[in-house]
Amino acid sequence: MDVLGLGADPVAADALVCSAKGCRAEARWGLLWNNPKLHTPERRKVWLACDDHRTRLEQFLGARRFWRSTVDVDDLERA
Questions:
Q1: Cβ of 21: how many Cβ atoms within 10 Å?
Q2: DSSP count for the chain of H helices, then E strands
Q3: Cα 62 to the center of its chain, rounded Å
Q4: Are 39 and 9 within 8 A, CB to CB?
Q5: pTM of the model
Q6: Pairwise CA distance, residues 24 & 36, whole Å
Q7: What is the C-alpha separation between 45 and 53, in angstroms, rounded?
Q8: Any idea where the domains of the chain sit in the sequence?
């Protein structure tokens, strides 16, 4: 269920670790994205980012036209 209206997949409460390769820092941001070739327009997948990797991950997703928005992890729906 998407209580917040973000359309994002729920995030496991115990998995708030940055999605950057090799990073084990606590995530502070949720990067909402979708691949329009695979997902419906309203579907949002979530990558988590620490402060150090937020910009790099947004740029990676943006270059592929996958990035949709970034929200505070406190605003993500928990599984």
A1: 6
A2: 1, 3
A3: 12
A4: no
A5: 0.81
A6: 29
A7: 17
A8: 1-9+16-79
